[in-house]
Amino acid sequence: MNETLAPVREDETVEPSLPRGSLAKTAVTVLDECVVEIISDSGEGAQRCGQSLGAIAARMGNGVWTVEIIPAEIQPPARSVAGASGNRIRLGASRIANGGDGVDVVVAFNEQVLLGRVRAGELKPGCTIFLESMWRTHGDARIAAAYRETYEELVERGYLVVEVPFERLCKPVVPDPRRGKNMFVLGLLCSLFSFDLKLAREQVRLTFRKKSDTVVRANLALLEAGAAWAEDNLDVKYRIPAVRATEPQIVVNGNTSLALGVLASGMEICAMYPITPATSASHYLSEVFERVGGIVHQAEDEIAACTFAIGASYAGKCAVTITSGPGYSLKQEAIGLAVMCEIPLVVINVQRGGPSTGQPTKGEQGDLLTAIYGSHGDAPKVVMAASTIEDCFYSVITARKIAEAFNMVVVVLSDSNLATSQQPFPRPKFDEAWLAPPIDQSPVPFGTKPYDWNPDTGLIRRIVPGQPNGMHTITGLAHDRDSRVAYDPVINQEAIRARSLKLAALQKTLKAPPVFGDPEGDLLIVGWGSTRGAIEEAVTRARAEGLKVSSTHLHFLQPLQPGIREIMQRFGKVLCVEANWCDRPEDRLIDENNRRFSALAMMLRSRFLVDIDCWGEVMGQPIKPATIHDVIRARLA
Amino acid sequence: MSMPMHDCLIRMVEDDHPLEDYQSGIPRWCSGCGDNAVLAAVQRLCRDENLRPEKLAFVSGIGCASRFPHYMRTYGFHGIHGRALPIAEGVKMARPDLHVFVNTGDGDCCSIGAAHWLHAIRYNMNMTVVLHDNHVYGLTKKQVSPTSPKGLRSNTTPHGSYLDAMNPLTVTLGVTNVSFVAQAVDWIPEAVYAVIRAAYHHKGFSFVRIIQRCPEFLPTMWEPWLRDPEKTLLLEHEDGIAYSAGLQRIYKNRQAHDPSDIHRAREIASSIDPVPVGILYRDESVPCYEDVREAGKPRPIEMVKSGLEAELDKFTVWPDADETGRTA
Questions:
Q1: The CATH number, out of the four listed (3.30.450.40, 3.40.50.300, 3.40.1050.10, 3.40.50.970), of the domain defined by the range A254-429
Q2: Is-contact A481 A523, C-beta < 8 A?
Q3: Shortest CB distance from A474 goes to which of B77, B94, B297?
Q4: Domain definitions of chain B by residue range
Q5: CA A215 to CA A213: how far, in whole Å?
Q6: What single string gives the DSSP state of each residue in B32-63?
Q7: What residue ranges do the domains of chain A occupy?
Q8: Which of B76, B116, B308 is the closest to A263 by Cβ?
Q9: A178, A167 Cβ separation under 8 angstroms
Q10: CB distance B311–A312 less than 8 Å?
Q11: What is the C-alpha to C-alpha distance for residues B48 and A193, in angstroms, rounded to an integer?
Q12: Of B70, B90, B301, which has the smallest distance from its Cβ to A311's Cβ?
């Protein structure tokens, strides 16, 4: 690893983020990893450029993690600090599992969107910036002045600013350079990172596969022009060692992965209501679900979406509803109904910042407790969390199976970090066992009770409408084994016991979570969900410094996997790291009697009676490995 | 191989369902409650149509009327307040082969579930929906409902309610894709049966409002209508309902109404005195959402597999055969 890539402290003088080239053009610097951002106004194609770069890198065999940079508004004003739209692509020699810390190379189509990233602290000191220079001579004097002022500021801060007249360079190639410069930039970056141009051409053809030949040819020409310009004008080239994959990989974001999981799980009905950031999963599903006989129903509201799914599950195969925080709150009463009636149901919650409308496009893990304890009364349900893009796919399949095996609600938690990030993973190999079996329509033996709770496991036999002799009315009211409204005081308690036991029955089938790092040490980090990549990278860095730290990541939050107590016992301290708030002990009013712990810490403390510490951050951005690394150092100081 | 004779006999008996095959438990509604009238009519309909009990699903929300499924020996789903319609829509989408009935009260349908009601009309899924409208909350002990007459003294409006009653018929007739609207009053059992039967035979969202008396909390509201047959308007048409000679002798205030005439239907719907009884509107041509969405289509494993593989193909990065294992 190149040492200049380590985070630079503020008190140090600014060193170049990346080694800079000499005039010897042949010099190729080998990097262990690099973080690139392409940012623009909305609609200038930065997303497409970034995603293509990520895909090419994946084809090269590099580790890749791409993150979308999304403005909150649909059409933010052009050239605005808040309007930055684009992609971050972290490239590495080995597997990459998070967006990394600071940016090494930025391509910006105007200086204002770039300022947004500078002010957010996303650029590494000394970072290389390729900046569209047409604004310098813009007809509007205010724009030209703003550009020059920003340019000066950036240079003064020690960034290496390379001014490139992107649109002017694209003009000879395409009539509308504003829309074409993204592929020029792709060519430039492919050259900069010594990517195989043959793969790049294939990727461009794939990206524009739905467009006409003319469009494909124009974009290929732009790619070549960008690469040629870089060869002629840049005095530096990087190469990130790669190992070409021997197995096919798929490159999708977390929401597409969830939707593919729905497809693969054999579920047939998805009822949803639009909400950020979950909606893109339903968008993709709407596009493809009908081809496999599935239906996406956009209901009139979140409650209708959930109850529609419950009705569909009740009468047919397990159904799914997809939402985000505020929508999840609205579904809570209906989720309680499914719990009470023991109807299988998969609920996907792609979490966002809360409470209330909160930060719709930003990530947080604030829905853990509401997922576990939500709905009124004692409503036990299964809660799982996906921690990688691949996990999104398989979690849905597992969730459907558990829902139908246990007649339970299974909540799958993802978040906006996973929703829009891409990471290659091995192409899933279809397995018939993923699918739900056909609906049972055989006659039910006389005397079968719809809620004949197994005294040990709490499990019941599911009876589906259409089965002769099985007729009964299910109800959200307390009910007896015949599903009759319960007026007997004992039966309510028996039913609650049975529904509770099902969690224990599931827990007995689970495995202990794996430990990342040594099985014993001074500090154990416990996490869940999308923080996994950052936590494990921070642990790796700290271990390289000799710190005795390991981590474990929980896939099941309810029930908790077995073996967690034993894992924790082998460490001096346990620290939960989450994208959730927890009171800071250093705050004047905070003491051990009033400190609010982060969600997972609260759960683990009550479960294991262990003095578990917690650290969390709710900055809306994915937690960076460097930040967690600092927390580890501080805890072990 | 032939079937033994006694099996055949059993089948024949099984296939012919007596009324008891649809009855379950003893209704806990008050004596004189209109819900009893609807239950009797629905059970009779099931028998007359010889419906297989396992193919029936009665879905309800919360309220006195929503106890309905418990008294049917069929599949039933007694859900949560206001959400009977979306639950029923899910049932129908997953299982177009089931006959779906919805029993909902005026609070359930017109207040807490009002949004679902409007959209259910628009979806026009093939189901029979009975609005048990007794103009008051009963289960929670006398609160004002959206269909309560203005001035009703209830536990939440001790000085009289403030707003005019909502008319569920005109609301329903105002929504896109409305395809069947009928009304009956609980004190004319023949009409209750006739409109529910017509609703059952209509393919689409059949909305039937039954005006009911609440003997506990609104015992006298409809007294003038009961005393004076002139205050009831029977709607007749060759495409509508034919009433018995006996009924026609009592209810002389009758009018021919073509159920395909939506403008006239809206006029009739807004009348409360006389109260219209019969089919107000019917349009068989409105497509059902479950048909539009091709619900119930067979879905072989091969279809799922090939669909998934095709999608995975879109996102797959294939290893280059000639350059595998290349390292830096």
A1: 3.40.50.970
A2: no
A3: B77
A4: 5-298
A5: 5
A6: T-HHHHHHHHHHHHHHHTT--GGGEEEEE-SS
A7: 3-246, 254-429, 443-509, 515-636
A8: B308
A9: yes
A10: no
A11: 78
A12: B90
A252 touches chain B (CB under 8 A): yes
Q: Which fold has domain A3-246?
A: Pyruvate-ferredoxin Oxidoreductase; domain 3 (3.40.920)
What 8-state DSSP symbol labels residue A173?
T
Q: Compute, in degrees rounded to 10, the torsion defined by CA atoms A316, A322, A328, A334.
A: -10
What is the nearest CA distance from A486 to chain B, expressed in angstroms? 12
The verdict on a CB contact (< 8 Å) between B25 and A424 is no
Please indicate whether the domains covering A254-429 and A515-636 agree at the CATH topology level: yes
Q: Does domain A515-636 have CATH number 3.30.565.10?
A: no
Position B156: which residue type?
T
Cβ of residue A435 closer than 8 Å to a chain B Cβ: yes
Closest-CA distance, B177 to chain A, in angstroms, reads 15
Q: How crowded is the C-beta side of A463, counted as CA atoms within 13 Å? A: 27
pLDDT tens-digit series, residues A571-626: 999 999 999 999 999 999 999 999 999 999 999 999 999 999 999 999 998 999 99
Query: Does the beta-carbon distance from B319 to A432 stay under 8 Å?
Result: no
Residue in A245, A466, A476 closest to B98 by CB: A466
Set of chain B residues whose Cβ sits within 8 Å of the Cβ of A260: 308, 311-312
A308 and chain B: CB distance < 8 Å anywhere? yes
- Determine the residue type at A475: T
pLDDT in tens, A270-297: 999 999 999 999 999 999 999 999 999 9
Q: pLDDT at residue A424 above 60?
A: yes
| Binary contact (B310, A247; C-beta < 8 A) | no
Instruction: Find, in chain B, the residue whose alpha carbon is nearest to that of A271.
Output: B90
Q: Which fold has domain B5-298?
A: Rossmann fold (3.40.50)
| pLDDT above 60: residue B3 | no
Output the pLDDT for position A73: 76
Q: Quote the CA–CA distance of A317 and A297 in Å, as a whole number.
A: 15
Is B116's CB within 8 Å of A304's CB?
yes
Arithmetic mean of pLDDT over chain B: 93
Q: Is A474 on the interface with B (CB under 8 A)?
A: yes
In the structure, what pLDDT confidence band is assigned to residue B1 with cuts at 50, 70 and 90? very low
Give the alpha-carbon dihedral of A359, A364, A368, A374, to 10 degrees: 0
> By the CB < 8 Å criterion, does A243 face chain B?
yes
CA distances in angstroms from A107 to A111, A130, A369, listed in the order given? 10, 5, 40
- DSSP for B22-33 reads GB-S---SPTT-
Cβ-based neighbours of B245, under 8 Å, separated by 6 or more: none
